[in-house]
Amino acid sequence: MSDSFLKQLECGHCGATASIDRLIGTCPECGGPLLARYDLDQARGDRIPEPGRGLWRWAGLLPVLPEGRFELGAGGTPLLPSSIGEWLGIGPTWIKDEAANPTASFKARGMAVAIGRAKALGATSLVAPSAGNAACAAAAYAAASGLPLTVFMPKDVPESFQVEARAYAARVELVDGLIDECGKRAQAMAERDGSFNLATFREPGRVEGKKTMGFEIAEQMGWRLPEVIIYPTGGGTGIVALWKAFDELEALGLIGSERPRLVMVQAETCAPLVRAFEAGEAKAEPWQDGSTVADGMRVPKSFGDRLVLDALRKSQGRAVTVSDAQMIEYARIMAARSGLFPCPEGAACLAAQVQLAEEGWIGSGERVVLFNTGTALKYLHLWPNATHPG
Ligand SMILES: *Cc1c(COP(=O)(O)O)cnc(C)c1O
Ligand SMILES: [Zn+2]
């Protein structure tokens, strides 16, 4: 497998650079989020992607040394043509089905890269805050890499996430509060005992792992990007990652300068990034008492807010909210019409698509990609007749 063309780490806020052979998380100058930068001229002459399947085909553009490339089958998920668009009269629609990842969510991509990088650079223990799926993905890759992991999750997180994370031998700590409170606990532990903190945007690997979703969509669509991509947003790692993916593909000469318009979807009861986008702000204020049934979108404050809002504006995108009731309703429609069993976050994308099509913001001929970011099997409590009779 090829070497990585990683050249340096660069702060997304102040532009300071940092060397790649030390395990650091955030900018040494200002504490901002670090982004991986590659020697793209060199990479251009190389074979990217490599043949085969999965996320490590893109190893040249990932910040992970070969000894950190643990294989659990992340990436290479299907891009499914769907008849729901036609059925709703809203044009050609594909679903990128991220439930096909290890631990059944796209969090596996980010954790494969973050944990692979950490292990190869000498980490000896890990810590992560999580609203649900990240804990399972981190725990699986911690198990694969042999590193001990502690996860902090809100105490009301569905049992499915706790059970699975514990199955992979993670230490699960339940916290009285939301993901932001869990983030503080994780940070404190990292400072106390040197565990490497895997929180989103507090280390550069998770954005890089999620970037492979953008690479795959481009490849799967014959290097002709769709007009619109709709993404269910918590902290917004995926928004930053998709935008970065397309810039790198252009530098490699694989696509041109055309870009999709990105749509960020949040729950109407926890929408700090949507509120900031609509208000024209560069940063997002924390959302008070946020709640939603979509655990992945229950994020009241994003550490990467500036990068997310910036990417969305550059794409000429939109930010919309949907209600929990709509997510539940559209999950049923999506399941019955497509054969996928989508998480509420995935259903939120369809609800947003319908809203934007009705407004006329999405034209009938425009090609749209929705993300189903995880499986409904971890959210069975949201479905009718879900309880066992006895
Ligand atoms: C984490 C998560 C999201 C949000 O992803 P971000 O890139 O962090 O905004 C969406 N859906 C599911 C199922 C998730 O677990
Ligand atoms: Zn900085």
UniProtKB/TrEMBL annotation:
Gene Ontology MF terms in the entry: threonine synthase activity
UniProt domain Tryptophan synthase beta chain-like PALP: residue ranges: 72-374
Cofactor(s) required, per the database record: pyridoxal 5'-phosphate
Enzyme class label: lyase
Gene3D superfamilies xref list: 3.40.50.1100
Source taxon at top rank: Bacteria
E.C. code: 4.2.3.1
Stored PROSITE patterns: DEHYDRATASE_SER_THR (PS00165)
Pfam entry (one): PALP
Keyword terms, alphabetized: Lyase, Pyridoxal phosphate
The protein's name: Threonine synthase
Species annotation: Natronospira proteinivora
